[in-house]
Amino acid sequence: MGPKEDMLPPGWEDLDRQMGQLFMMGFDGTTVSPQIPAEDATRLVLELQTIARDAGHPVPLLIALDQENGGVNSLYDEIYIRQFPSAMGIAATGSKALAHDVALATAQELKAVGVNWILGPVLDVLTNVRNQPLGVRTTGDDPQEVSQYGVEFMKGFKEAGLVTCGKHFPSYGNLEFLGAQTDVPIITESLEQLSLTALVPFRNAIIHGLDSMMVGGVSLSSAGVNVMHACLSEQVVDDLLRKDLKFHGVVVSECLEMEALTHNIGVGGGTVMAKNAGCDIILLCRSFPVQQEAINGLKLGVENGIIGRARIEQSLRRVLSLKAKCTSWEQALNPPGVPSLTQMQPSHTSLSTRAYNSSISVLRDKNNILPLSNILEPNEELLLLTPLVKPLPASAVSHSVTEHLSMSLDVTAMDRTASVLSGESVFKELGRSLSRQRNGRVLHTSYTSNGVRPIHENLIDRASAVIVVTADANRNLYQHGFTKHVSMICRSQFTPSGEHREKPMVVVAASSPYDFATDLSIRTYVCTYDFTETALEALVKVLYGEMTPMGSLPGSISRSQKLHQARQHWLVESWNEERDSHALDSLLDSIRGECARGERSELLGVTSNSFLLRREEIDEAHFVVRNSSTQALYGFCSTYYFQSTGTGVIGALIVDPTRRKLGIGNSLHNRAIRTLLQRKGVKRFQLGSRLPGIYLGIPSANPVERKKLRQWFANLTWNTALSRPVCSVILRNLSTWTPPDGLIQGLQNADVAYDLVYGWDYANSILDHIKTNSRQGVIDIYKVALAGAPNCGIIRATRPGDGAILGSVVVYNQRANLAEHMPTLKATRTPAGGISSPVISPSVGEYATVMQGLVLLAIKQIRKQGAEAIIVDCVDGDSNYDCLSGIGFTTLHSFEEVNCDATSWTMMT
């Protein structure tokens, strides 16, 4: 007698009952038939479980479902079931936490209708991204990334109470298709190659507690391996999966109704092979005669001794263990149903919107044509060209799995339509959505394998911008050819006067992002990963600038493009004032000219001289990338080392708008960091400088540009997540300005005295106050102010009893030396004064009162000199802004100041 844990529970002695647990079978229809039970969400699942209980089943049914999201939703209900991005769409968000939350929400909805087993996650690695059927159903082509997201999906599924099923072992990520349906797709990689790439996510999922595994119906053909069907191979299931990868859960076969298997082996023989290979559950789709053939084949195999009774019982124990994890009669007969779905709907709707909004990826926008609202006038027409496509399938490898998933007597899977709308319908809705979001007219027509027709040419000629949508163009080559043809037409446009002018064109990959991922001739390329309604709604927001695109292409292609750009090393030279001043002024003019309509450039009033401090206590070194033949500057970077605080600063990094994304910025940045690391005593680095006050950090007024710049600097090791807001603010119409009601009275009641002082006689006490409270550059600004009388002074707030300084600000006019380094003052084009670097002692209880008192006295002083405006630079957005806005100041420029420890770059030395 075997050990006690190997004994079957009471009631499982009958062989037919044992074998009934080992099939997953489907059928047509949505009601219970005399042959096999079926589905219609909660009601039908409950009916199935009730039938099973009344028939004397010791344990409930397993109800299994494919619910991969994106275009693969076997269960969809417009009211109660939410749409979420595909696996690759989730990976494009870059958020593992979001992956977990979406998996949890997906599983909670399935649990509500009575499903207890989800056929996921997909763990295939796209080791060949072209012509693969999986597409966005998998995370991407990086084994580690697929592993990480796979584990997060698993955790979410399990947290909701479902058991999991990894698929499709050993991989569907690099298949060779020979053409005929009777031919089995082939894996040509060796087991060693698979172990290094494709098997990594499966191995990792097993370590983290994967409950079951689906083994594919593909063949393997390489050195040492010659397998006709993986799920029928003992070498794949028992040896590779069970022994090598140490998987002890339930193994499910691929559907044995696939044409290649029925043609080559037959379902009866295939069932016997699958059981002997080590599969616990045999998957069959919907043909009742085929299912009978499979059951009879298994019985005959046992009767003839080909299949040992011990193997049947071993599989049964695994299936019963799986059921114990996820169901009981109490759960099976009391599904939460629609009330639970209704309760979840608001939070899941919000999660769906957030996930899709975070996934849209702009891979390229070389000509800066996004958002379209910046380049299209209301009277101009926008053309949308979309392919005629079929609904997204629920599965992709075999024709049988594409059309339907499975249901069984005792292991049941449900299926409905795979997508909400057909491709044609959803693209029509995209056209309507584009129309609703803009005043101008949107033209929309489809295209087919017939290519560019005269109607397309006429519409392209008529429109002012063109959007071409593709959906798996690498598998539907006509889409690839059509898009390239339209691109050629758009790039060959001329104005009525004969001047060449490229017509703006956006290509949107609405499924696989690999359609044009590496084709740099497609200059503006956006990926949505799905062509569901929710995905395309998010796309419209991105195209019109209502939302900043936050997604990025998962996997190696995106990284290799970044590395390729970083490897383009430009010759960086030290700044030469005599040689480069005029060229820098020209570069500044070109950047100001690129500023979007309605935006105020941070470089207004800036000249080449604005960057030069010429102070002994500040080490400055500036760098250029230039054309030595024409003397033109392609890029400029200013750096400063403030000895007083041990801070190395990148004060500006600017690149010719026509030469961006060529590695110029990377080359300048690397040279700047290397130089700053050589400064003795450097402790930290800062992005943005208060002296000179040109860029206080990363410009943040334009959300799209802000995101791009934050990501660019993050890729260069800056910790942008710890940035702090800082801004310049302005008070206009100074001659007619009056203080808010009650302000002066409140200041008079406070026990604080204010005075204005000039010169070095006051330096010791002021600088002691500054040293205990200041940030980079602030003490240097005060030193400039102390030397700048009579055009520059310092206003103090003191305690009347002992004269202790409670707060201070610098006040100056346009004739002050300090104004040379604060170009926003000159850019006002009106008589103006400046307030700089407020410093309030931490011991002050009434922070806002002291701050407003200092500024009020500064306003009084500046107004005496006939100024019409006041600018306050270096305003900390988290403390000082509210004090100033209450007086009447408004934001002029906003930035994000970034600080990093110097050790972040010590590896470069």
UniProtKB/TrEMBL annotation:
Pfam families linked: Acetyltransf_1 (PF00583), Glyco_hydro_3 (PF00933)
Residue span, N-acetyltransferase domain: 616-687
Signal peptide: none
Family membership noted in the UniProt record: Belongs to the glycosyl hydrolase 3 family.
Name of the protein this chain belongs to: Beta-N-acetylglucosaminidase
Domain Glycoside hydrolase family 3 N-terminal: 38-322
Entry's Gene Ontology BP terms: carbohydrate metabolic process; peptidoglycan turnover
ATP-binding among keywords: no
Keywords, ordered alphabetically: Carbohydrate metabolism, Glycoprotein, Glycosidase, Hydrolase
GO MF annotations in UniProt: acyltransferase activity, transferring groups other than amino-acyl groups; hydrolase activity, hydrolyzing O-glycosyl compounds
